């Protein structure tokens, strides 16, 4: 949807979420809905690892002498985590994914050969023809998007988690240590996951178009971004900056509803293991 320029013809409306999906299926078969999946799968595990590891590191560095962090510092830790994952993994993964998705060809016709056959071939072709730096095209916008994503995501999650812990039926002297039921963690993750897409949809749309388009050598990043922004606003209007917001929320929010319960479970297991090891060291002394 972010790459589509439907609705430019006078008297026509831009295609919505379902209409866009139906057109893709009609033109390119249902398999086309999974274009770019290889790039996503190869990047999702390192992305999540870097996200949560860097968030915990930044949160630890920003903690006060008592080891606690306020809302503002949580937001800063989220910004740092988003920026780290964007530079390390997300930007190259997004470039490859968008190039694969932007190809319009029928997967049902074996004689119709796409330019990029798969994620690996896309990386090879992009680096060979356009240089390694192309994989980092739009890195500033990607970092800005991921930073605001994770700043909103972690801040919302932590605040809703505190609220839920204070309102559990069985209260303790330290509500912040209360373990929440999995369904509550999933619900909080679902809500917090939706905050990012709503907060930075224009950034994501401009980034997507930037990473899909080829430019003459020597064109500055500012010139590319300014050109895309002017063209979108002039030809498609302000609503174009929010294209794709529905499928993006439907993709990101359920993902966070799964990720956060797993994160909490793994964290609790690691804390128990670490506590047992420290207790064993103390006993041996």
What does this structure look like?
The protein is an all-alpha fold. It is 69% helix and 0% strand. It is built from 8 helices and no strands. Helix 2 (37-62) packs antiparallel against helix 3 (71-102) and helix 3 (71-102) crosses helix 5 (139-166).
Helices and strands in order:
Elements: H1 17-28, H2 37-62, H3 71-102, H4 119-130, H5 139-166, H6 182-212, H7 221-236, H8 245-284
Number of strands: 0
Order of helices and strands: HHHHHHHH
Report on the biggest sheet.
none
Compute the CA-based radius of gyration: 22 Å
Query: What's the helix count?
Result: 8
- Average pLDDT taken over every residue: 85
Helical residues, percent: 55-70%
Estimated share of beta-strand residues: under 5%
The computed structural class is: mainly alpha
Query: Could you say which overall geometry the principal axes of the C-alpha atoms support?
Result: elongated
Q: Spans with pLDDT under 50 lasting ≥5 residues?
A: none
Distance between the termini: 63 Å
Sum this structure up briefly:
By secondary structure, the chain is mainly alpha-helical. It is 69% helix and 0% strand.
Structural descriptors:
single chain; 285 residues; mainly alpha; 8 helices; 69% helix
